[in-house]
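Look over this entry.
=====
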Amino acid sequence: MAEVLKGKPVVDAMARDLELRVARLREQNVKPTLAIVRVGQRPDDLSYERTALKRAESLGIDVRSVVLDETTCTEQLAEAIEAINKDVTIHGCLLFRPLPPFIDENAICDLLVPEKDIDGITRASLASVFVGQGVGYAPATAAAVMRMLDYYEVPLNGAHVVVVGRSLVIGKPVAQLLLARHATVTTCHSRTADLPELMRAADVVVCATGRARGYGKECFSAGQVVIDVGINFDDEGNLCGDVDFDAVEPVVGAITPVPGGIGSVTTSTTMAHVVEAAERAAGLW
C-alpha cells in the first residue's frame, strides 16, 4: 500500500508559520491584504472564492473582493487592475480566469504589476520562474507541488521527474522549479510517444492534464511518488484527479489523493505569497 500524501498536514504546517508572520506584520501596522477580482458568477469561481476567504480569515489576511458584471469589457477590467496596482494597502491580486472570451485576457494579465502577481499570471512573473530571479511569484499550483514534495521530504536532487502536462499554469513552471532543485525533468503531453513507458521509468510523476482518471496502473511502477494535480469530475459527478487512484495506489510508493491533496495546499500557497508580498512591501524580506 502506498503512503497517501495528504494536503492537510502541509496546510497545518504552513498555517503555523504564516500566523506568526502575519502577527509580526500587524505589529508594524501592516495588514496583509489580498484583492480577489471576479468577472461574473461562474460556480467554480464562487467556490474557490469561498475557500480563499475562509483560509485568509483563518490566517488574519484581509480580503477585498472586486466583483464585475459578466458584461464587463476589457477597458473596465483594466481600470480595476490599475486601481489595485496603485493601492499601496493591497499586497496581492488573485484574478479568476478564464475571463469571458470578449476580454483580452493576455492584456489584462500583463497589466498587473509583478509585485502583486501572487498567482504567476504575468509574463514578468513567469520569466522570473524560468530565469530563477526577478520579481513575481510562480503560479500557486506549481509552487504547491514543490511544497508538497518538500514537506514529505521527497528527494529531488538527481531524481528523474516526469511532468505530464505543459500548460503555463502548472506543467511548464513546475518543470522549471524542479530543474532549479537539480531534478532531471522530462515534460510530456498528449502527443508524447510511449507515454506510459516514460512515466513508469520516473522516480516522481506529476500529472496535470485535466483527464479524469486518465492514467491507470499501466503508467506507474513500484516505489514511485505520484503527485496528482488534476481537478476533474467523472461521469457520476464525483471529484477525481488525473490518476486512477484506486488502481494506482496499490502499485506506487506514495501518491496524493483528490480531493484532499494539492488543492488545499494551493490555496495556502496563494496566501503565503500574499504574506511574502506584504513583507517585501514593508521591507521585512
User: Anything to note?
Assistant: The mean pLDDT is 96.
